[in-house]
């Protein structure tokens, strides 16, 4: 997720378990052939056999609108040995749509098909090429047509974010429309959008007919969510936890937050470090009162050394306990 779920947060969240595969934030492709180092900067997992340090495969995602240019870039990317290549047909950002990319392409199924076919031809046959789409740009009338165009172009798998671009990120997600898409395509479909709890996951599965789910903001807010969903099994439909209680206790999450900070401090631009921690705390505080407290304490702090000291102070009670044990 561009600007939010990058390699730093992927590393941390995949340690929490329950995730079979990640898709990277989009890599924008327009008119140039990106060098390998650009792909490796955005998806450094490519230097680790394509996996996060917890061992979860990462599929890099490309975003663009020119079939030839996307195909040439996909070929370079494929040479770096990723776990497949994903194409973005869902981004709602104005700057992206103005250049005909992301969700804007859902107005033109014929172009979707040409993009997918060109990328499919450019990537070695055993390597999967998948796509992520919204239901449409202004309405969902052509959702099935778009899904079929992507399948016919050679998509091996389709993630459907069950909203149009016009819906932005406003609830609800129309999971039942994913079932309509599943009814017309033969390729596996993965359901996405508004899964915040185990109960949401079960309702999404029931309405969409999908067993595979993609989690976005729900996982950032509750890092134990994927494991809790996995524990229910893909066909579960019994009573599920509908509460907002997080699935990992704060004491267990705190070391991950500290590691996140360490990674941010060593791997991100200094100017971005404090903001990234506060951004994650801003999600976590919807589930954890302790994150709310941390967010309030750090909200006005941008000096990274002050945050280092704050983080060390959080660790002290734990260290003291360990020393006594
Ligand atoms: C800040 C932000 C950045 C995102 N970046 C991407 C992206 O780079 N590629 C992508 O396919 N989807 C991206 N998305 C969309 C999410 O992957 C997901 O489809 C959407 O948030 C719905 O799922 P959720 O309700 O579980 O969050 C982004 C969403 C947000 C909020």
Q: Please, could you describe this protein's structure?
A:
This protein is an alpha/beta fold and 325 residues long. It folds into 2 domains: 7-232, Aldolase class I (TIM Barrel); 250-324, Up-down Bundle (Bacteriocin As-48, Chain A). Helix content is 48%, strand content 12%. It has helices spanning 7-15, 36-42, 67-78, 94-98, 109-122, 143-153, 175-184, 198-208, 217-221, 225-232, 250-267, 270-284, 289-298, 304-324; strands at residues 22-28, 58-63, 85-89, 129-136, 157-164, 189-192, 213-214. A 7-stranded parallel beta sheet has the order 1-2-3-4-5-6-7. Helix 7 (175-184) links the parallel strand 5 and strand 6. The longest helix is centred in the last third of the chain and has 21 residues, at 304-324. The termini are far apart. The mean pLDDT is 94.
List the helices and strands and how they pair.
Layout: H1 7-15, E1 22-28, H2 36-42, E2 58-63, H3 67-78, E3 85-89, H4 94-98, H5 109-122, E4 129-136, H6 143-153, E5 157-164, H7 175-184, E6 189-192, H8 198-208, E7 213-214, H9 217-221, H10 225-232, H11 250-267, H12 270-284, H13 289-298, H14 304-324
Parallel strand pairs: 1-2, 2-3, 3-4, 4-5, 5-6, 6-7
Helix pairs in contact: 1-11, 3-5, 5-6, 6-7, 7-8, 11-12, 11-14, 12-13
């Amino acid at each position: 997720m561009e600007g939010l779920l990058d390699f730093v947060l992927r590393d941390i969240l995949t340690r929490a378990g329950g995730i079979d595969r990640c898709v990277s934030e989009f890599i924008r492709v327009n008119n140039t052939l990106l060098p390998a180092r650009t792909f490796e900067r955005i998806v450094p997992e490519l230097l680790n056999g394509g996996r996060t340090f917890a061992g979860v495969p990462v599929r890099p995602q490309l975003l663009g609108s020119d079939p030839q240019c996307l195909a040439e870039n996909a070929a370079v990317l494929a040479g770096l040995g990723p776990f497949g290549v994903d194409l973005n047909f869902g981004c709602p950002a104005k700057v992206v749509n103005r250049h005909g990319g992301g969700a804007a392409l859902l107005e033109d199924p014929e172009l979707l098909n040409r993009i997918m076919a060109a990328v499919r031809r450019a990537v070695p046959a055993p390597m999967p090429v998948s796509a992520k789409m919204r239901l449409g740009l202004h309405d969902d009338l052509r959702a099935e047509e778009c899904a079929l165009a992507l399948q016919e172009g050679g998509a091996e798998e389709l993630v459907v974010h069950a909203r149009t671009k016009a819906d932005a990120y406003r609830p609800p997600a129309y999971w039942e429309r994913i079932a309509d898409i599943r009814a017309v395509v033969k390729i596996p479909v993965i359901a996405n959008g508004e899964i915040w709890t185990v109960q949401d996951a079960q309702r999404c599965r029931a309405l969409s007919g999908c067993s595979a789910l993609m989690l976005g903001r729900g996982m950032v807010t509750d890092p134990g969510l994927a494991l809790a969903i996995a524990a229910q099994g893909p066909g579960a439909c019994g009573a599920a936890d509908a509460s907002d209680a997080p699935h990992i206790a704060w004491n267990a999450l705190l070391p991950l937050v500290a590691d996140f900070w360490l990674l941010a401090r060593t791997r991100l631009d200094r100017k971005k470090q404090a903001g990234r921690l506060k951004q994650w705390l801003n999600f976590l505080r919807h589930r954890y009162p302790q994150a709310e407290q941390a967010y309030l304490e750090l909200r006005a702090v941008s000096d990274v050394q002050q945050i280092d000291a704050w983080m060390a102070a959080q660790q002290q009670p734990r260290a003291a306990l360990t020393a006594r044990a």
